[in-house]
Each structure stands twice: as C-alpha cells, then as structure tokens.
Amino acid sequence: MEYPQVAAHYAPSAGYFPLPGRVGLAVLGAYGGVRDVAGPASPGRAGTVRAARLWHHRRMIPMTTDRLLLRLPDDDDLASYTAMNADPEVMRYIGDGSVLPQDQDRTAAWIARARREWRERGHGPLSVVVRETGLTAGWVALAVPAFLPEILPAVEIGWRLGRAHWGNGYATEAAGSLLRFGFAECGLDRIVSIRHVDNQRSRRVMDKLGLRFAFETVVPGHGRPVAVHEITRAAHEEPPPHPRLP
C-alpha cells in the first residue's frame, strides 16, 4: 500500500456512496466495481439512506481485538506517525523508498483527511493502538490503490507499523479485523493487497490472512516491481480445513 507524501488515496468504494441526481445509493461489485441500484431521488430519501449507512459504520468504530484497539486517527498519533514515516526501514518498500520529512503539520493534514473519509464515506484508515500500553503502533486501512491503475476497480487492505512494533503479530491481528469489516459491513466481493516483491514480512502477513498471490507487475509512477495478492468473499468465508488425524 502506498501513500505518496502521506496523502490518502481513498475513493468512495467501500459500501455505498452518493450518485449525483439519484437517490444516493450504489453497491460494490467484484473488485469494488459499482452497480447503481438507486432510483430517481426523492426529497429526503438520499440523506436518510446515507445517514443510516454512515451511522451503522460508525457504530463499528472503534474495533477491538485481543490485544489491539482500532480507532480513528487523532492528534495523539502525531508523533508516532511522523517518526514512522521518517524511518528508512519502515519506508524501504513504500513508494519509491523515500522517507518523508519530520513534519507534524503534514501528518496532521493526513489525520484530518482520514477522519473526513470516515465521516463522509464510512471507511478509511484506523490507528492501531496496543491496548496494554496505549501506544500507537501504526495504522491499517481499506483504500483504493490509485497508484496501480491496471487493477482498478479494486479495494486494497494495507498497513504500516513503527519498527518498534514489528514481530508481534499486530499487522495480522489488525488487518484480519478490518478484512472482516470489509466483507461483512462494506459488502466487498474481493479485496487485494500489494507489496514490493522483496517485502517478505508483508508476504507472510498476507499468507496468514488468506490473501493469495495473483501476479507481479510494475508501478507506473516509480517503476518498482510489486506483487498483487487477493482474497474473495467466498474464500474468506470458507471454514478452515479439518486437521488430519494420525
């Protein structure tokens, strides 16, 4: 997942969103493709549908897992996010590999955009907080991978954690919760995840989440090779295989 200049590339793709001149309801198909199921707008109906959807999604936030709290980003995350984005090891496989400047104003603008996405569309990035310590480990998000046009329409799940929080299974735990949200609450039929071909840490997380390798390609913006992984709703809902008896 890439966010050049800490800008969020989110599109109205998780669930429903307004359509001009109509009742304001569209439904996601495979890869987030949109089917317009709305009729002509009637007074008050569009606002009621949209408000009900956003209220339902906001009811789900924050989310909790065994060890983590997934909540909307806020000012408590400023220092953690700014330091994370300036760490060469964290940014090694992100975009063109460049680190971002230690600029809290830039980070604050990203946080404001992230919160606006939840208010307006019912999806976006969530801060990953370790419940035992209260520390912000990073973020997890559902987003549209605009940096890779060849796979659009699509919705991607991605994550970024500070190096101090690597190796604890937090990425798998947080992304697993948001993956379920994407299928169960946003109505997605398929979710992808994208990594640099050499990023084996992310590959292991994707394998644990059930995201299977699909193909390799190159990001046109910077020419770096990436691997695309994917999982369908049907595959996600399949029960785990029964263990073999000796």
Plain-language structure description:
The protein is α+β, with helices and mostly antiparallel strands and 246 residues long. 30% of the residues lie in helices and 22% in strands. The protein contains seven helices and ten strands. It has helices at 45-59, 78-85, 88-91, 104-121, 170-184, 200-209, 233-237, and strands at 26-28, 34-36, 63-64, 68-71, 125-130, 136-143, 156-161, 190-196, 212-218, 225-232. The protein has a five-stranded antiparallel sheet with strand order 3-4-5-6-7, with helices on both faces. Strands 8-10-9 form a three-stranded antiparallel sheet. Strands 1-2 form a two-stranded antiparallel ribbon. Helix 2 crosses helix 4 (104-121) and helix 5 packs across helix 6 (200-209). The chain starts with 25 loop residues before the first strand and ends in a 9-residue tail after the last helix. Mean pLDDT is 80; it is low at 3-43.
